[in-house]
Automatic annotation (TrEMBL):
One of its GO terms (molecular function) is oxidoreductase activity. It comes from the Eukaryota. It comes from Tremella mesenterica (Jelly fungus). This is Short-chain dehydrogenase. Belongs to the short-chain dehydrogenases/reductases (SDR) family. Transmembrane segments: none annotated.
Length: 308
């Protein structure tokens, strides 16, 4: 009975079970009419993500601490045609008050949330190796001079703990997700970083890299626990490499040759360039719509991790 029900709802892997157009890209990656939330969605990768979802028909709530930034982003980038839209919500997701404010807006206006993308983050390099003499004494002295426990815990609070609290606050809405009147698993996408995968500190980013590694494991635990309890909520992780954004920018001249050499040698990207918006959004749409995917961790980095 279970097998027959499965076949009725999903078909099977045989070609003769498919309906015409079922494998077209417009069907495979369709988010039209879905409700999405992108934290830190007013700038950088977050804004790219929101725009990609909205242009494909989703209603996207973006959050940010600065009202002028999120309001301007929604005004400028909301699609002028189609069903998609961008809705600004002012709130600091690194605080319970900010999370509660977002939840209140969503509960008031939506029956469910299809996609939550935890994207907000900060990057503060705590120890710059190149500014020390490289000796044990020099490194220790540099930490004594500039580091504090508070700075380290701030990184975890914003980059990791806030993902946990935001996801748990919206879990009931994600568990109610549906598409076209049919139940469909809610999707959580946590934006981590290749910095959370590297064995080296990338020049002294111990606190940032450790916070991103924590995000990776947090995501795995949530994916496992939600699946075990049959909550109908998927959790996956994107680990971007170098995509120019509010956190991650590169000041280069306009020479393509110089940019290529810098990317290959200084940034150690085998592909010789940073990533671009369409490449990132393709991955987001794929994870958001693949209802058989959970617990995965996907680098998108131009080959960076092949060297690290």
């Amino acid at each position: 009975m279970v097998v027959e029900s499965y076949r009725t709802e999903y078909g099977n892997v045989l070609a003769d079970s498919l309906t015409p157009g079922q494998l077209s890209s417009s069907n495979l990656f369709d988010v039209s009419g879905q409700v999405a939330v992108v934290t830190g969605g007013g700038t950088g990768i977050g804004l790219i993500t929101a725009l990609g979802l909205a242009e494909n028909g989703a209603k996207v709530y973006i959050t940010g601490r600065r009202a002028d930034v999120v309001n301007a982003a929604a005004e400028k980038y909301s699609p002028k045609k189609g069903t998609g839209s961008i809705v600004p919500v002012v709130g600091d997701m690194s605080s319970k008050e900010g999370v509660d404010a977002l939840r209140a807006v969503l509960v008031k206006n939506e029956k469910y949330v299809n996609v939550l993308i935890n994207n907000h983050a900060i990057q503060v390099i705590g120890l710059k190796f190149h500014e020390t003499d490289g000796t044990a004494e020099g490194i220790s002295a540099a930490v004594d001079a500039v580091e504090s426990f508070e700075k380290w815990t701030e990184m975890y609070r914003i980059n990791c703990a806030s993902y946990f609290f935001t996801t748990m606050a919206l879990l009931p809405l994600l568990a109610k997700a549906e598409v076209g009147g049919k139940k469909q698993p809610g999707s959580v996408i946590n934006v981590s970083s290749i910095s959370g995968l590297c064995n080296d500190s990338q020049g002294g980013q111990f606190n940032y890299n450790a916070s991103k590694a924590a995000v990776n494991h947090l995501s795995s635990m949530m994916a496992a626990e939600f699946a075990e309890r049959e909550l109908g909520v998927r959790v996956n992780t994107i680990c971007p490499g170098h995509f120019p954004s509010g956190i991650n920018t590169t000041n280069l001249d306009e020479s393509p040759e110089t940019k290529y050499q810098f990317a290959r040698k200084e940034m150690e990207i085998p592909f010789g360039r940073p990533g671009v918006a369409p490449e990132y959004v393709r991955l987001v749409l794929s994870i958001a719509t693949n209802t058989y995917q959970t617990g995965t961790l996907i680098p998108i980095d131009g080959g960076y991790m092949t060297k690290h």
